[in-house]
Automatic annotation (TrEMBL):
The gene is LOC120108699. Belongs to the multicopper oxidase family. One of its GO terms (molecular function) is copper ion binding. Pfam families: Cu-oxidase_2. This is L-ascorbate oxidase homolog. Residues 92-229 form the Plastocyanin-like domain. It comes from Phoenix dactylifera (Date palm). InterPro entries: Cu-oxidase_C, Cu-oxidase_fam, Cupredoxin, CuRO_3_AO-like.
Amino acid sequence: LTTPAVLHYSSSGQKVSGPIPGGPTTQIDWSLNQARSFRTNLTASGPRPNPQGSYHYGMINVTRTIQLSSSAAQVNGKQRYAVNSVSYVEPDTPLKLADHFKIGGVFRLGSISDHPPGGKEYLDTSVMAANYRVFVEIVFENSEDIVQSWHLDGYNFWVVGMDGGQWRPDSRKGYNLRDAVSRCTAQVYPKSWTAVYLMLDNVGMWNVRSEYWARRYLGQQFYLRVYSPIESIRDEYPIPKNALLCGRASGHHTRPL
């Protein structure tokens, strides 16, 4: 049973202004139009005429496009959820420790592709390689009948577009490249897609996950490894000397700060 409701403060004597919105519906156009209407106020709290200064997300060349498609399937007789056909499984050693100490066999870069491969779902410790300070486009695709939300640790991104149906390169013509909202979580409506722009300016091993927690637990997540070959403390702080080590990293020693 679903119905609209009105919430107001107990001290408020005002009635609702205008007609009350209709109840839930299977049509998503209204929700898409509402989501696209959220914009950054470019006239507040910033110098004119360009509050973002010389760094504006709509004026940077995208050098990589990543399409992420969610799916559900039975894998080895058990219910699993996947991203680009890979259902994530936890390794015996935390990924950041394995990466820091260069421990082989814990994960492999490229274990998840940039685009949906279209094959059957399978299990793996999925890690996607990415270069430091690359400007990327990520497209979240939802072919299912539920609203999904996706979160990226360590970053904010600009939600530049969303629409129903299948994403195509010419969908970029409808992107908002002027006053999009900066967020770290984005919704993807049923049978729809959401596109974000992102500057990979934070070195580390970052989790990309479904915010539907049962799906995340059953594999709908992966890690984005943003790497700088310089390995400088300018780009990433060293591991604390009192860090807890476990798994295959137990016999290693941390370097002092």
